[in-house]
């Protein structure tokens, strides 16, 4: 499938969602996915019934809100007794938060082709990454059927839906997401449930489903025997839109994985997290020295050049 980036950007703006097929080359996904198995059991191990693999999945989430042991404080999500299209706590097992103990997965989180797509579609270079995590699902963990919904948990105020105000929610597929392994069902802008036939956001690994907050969508069950689905949540907002948010990164900014990742970043990449760009009044010679000291190996020359 060939990808017309501009056409996809226009589709996101006018239809409210798009699948940018093959946005990231499959070879790059495959290399990073080798490191996924530090965070998740391999699907064959999980489905073999290996207790260690199952325990790995059951306890591997790093978003503690979704740990069943914390049920009661977990958004009032249903456990298994509810049938049909419902949100269930176990649908959200398998959330691993960025930064990962994996350099390739960390780099994938800000892949230049994904960032470029978001900048084009949002018509701004000055955007921020605000949701960053990996989500793994395996057939049989739970009934993954959800009701149609619009995501209301990315902002503390109602959505402003005119052009220029949109944030981009999205899933970068780390595995082939096809029938049987839970491609998201989605409606186009202006359509609402019930009664409208949904689209299936199927796509190969490396494809990016981008959608806006005002489209209806839902997760569906994994029905394929031995099936699994892995994706990376990558969401962007315009700079200075402080009312939008989801994940915060500062709390991990003194740990090894972040330090190595930050040292590999350009100023533009760090700016996705809110770091002041070269030329910003924040920077002094002393602070640039401290940046180099903090992130050993970072190329600080753009910050230095801008001071001259
Ligand atoms: O997993 C999916 O396909 C969609 C999930 C979703 O929409 C949600 O949890 O809000």
Commentary on this structure:
There is one protein chain. This protein is of the alpha+beta class. The protein folds into 2 domains: 238 residues, q2cbj1_9rhob like domain (Jelly Rolls, Sandwich), CATH 2.60.120.620; 52 residues, no CATH class. Helices cover 26% and strands 15% of the residues. The strands form 2 sheets. A 6-stranded antiparallel beta sheet has the order 1-7-4-9-3-2. Strands 6-5-8 form a 3-stranded antiparallel beta sheet, with no helix packed on it. The longest helix is centred in the first third of the chain and has 11 residues. It is globular, with a radius of gyration of 20 Å. It starts with a helix and ends with a helix. The mean pLDDT is 94. The site of 2-oxoglutaric acid has 7 residues, from strand 8.
How is this structure best summarized?
The chain is an alpha+beta fold. The protein is 26% helix and 15% strand. The chain has 2 domains: 5-242, Jelly Rolls, CATH 2.60.120; 256-307, no CATH class.
> What fraction, in percent, of the residue positions are helical?
25-40%
Bound molecules: 2-oxoglutaric acid
Strand content: 5-15%
What does the overall shape look like?
Answer: globular
What's the Cα radius of gyration? 20 Å
Q: Which strand order does the major sheet show? A: 1-7-4-9-3-2
Number of domains: 2
The largest pleated sheet is described as: 6 strands, antiparallel
CATH-level-4 superfamily name of the largest domain: q2cbj1_9rhob like domain
- In the CATH hierarchy, what is the class of the largest domain? Mainly Beta
Strand segment tally:
9
Structural class: alpha+beta
- Distance between termini? 47 Å
CATH topology of the largest domain: Jelly Rolls
Provide the low-confidence segments as ranges.
none
- Named CATH architecture of the largest domain: Sandwich
């Amino acid at each position: 499938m060939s990808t017309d980036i501009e056409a996809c950007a226009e589709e996101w703006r006018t239809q409210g969602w798009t699948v940018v097929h093959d946005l990231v080359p499959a070879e790059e996904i495959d290399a990073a996915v080798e490191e996924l198995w530090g965070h998740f059991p391999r699907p064959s191990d999980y489905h073999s019934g290996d207790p260690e693999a199952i325990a790995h999945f059951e306890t591997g989430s790093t978003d503690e809100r979704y740990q069943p042991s914390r049920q009661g404080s977990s958004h009032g999500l249903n456990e298994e007794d509810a049938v049909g299209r419902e949100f269930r706590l176990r649908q959200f097992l398998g959330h691993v938060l960025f930064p990962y103990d994996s350099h390739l997965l960390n780099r994938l989180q800000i892949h230049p082709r994904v960032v470029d797509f978001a900048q084009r579609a949002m018509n701004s270079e000055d955007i921020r990454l605000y949701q960053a995590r990996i989500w793994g699902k395996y057939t049989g963990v739970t009934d993954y059927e959800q009701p149609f919904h619009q995501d209301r948990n990315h902002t503390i105020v109602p959505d402003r839906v005119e052009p220029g105000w949109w944030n981009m929610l999205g899933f970068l597929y780390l595995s082939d997401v096809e029938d049987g392994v839970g491609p998201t069902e989605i409606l186009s802008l202006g359509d609402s449930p019930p009664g409208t036939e949904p689209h299936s956001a199927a796509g190969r690994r490396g494809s990016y489903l981008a959608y806006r907050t005002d489209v209806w969508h839902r997760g569906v069950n994994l029905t394929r025997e031995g099936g699994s689905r892995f994706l990376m949540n990558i969401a962007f907002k315009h700079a200075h839109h402080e009312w939008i948010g989801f994940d915060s990164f500062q709390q991990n900014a003194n740990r090894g994985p972040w330090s190595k990742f930050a040292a590999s970043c350009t100023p533009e990449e760090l700016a996705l997290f809110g770091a002041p760009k070269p030329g910003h009044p924040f920077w002094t010679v002393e602070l640039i020295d401290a940046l180099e000291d903090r992130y050993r190996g970072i190329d600080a020359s753009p910050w230095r050049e801008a001071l001259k």
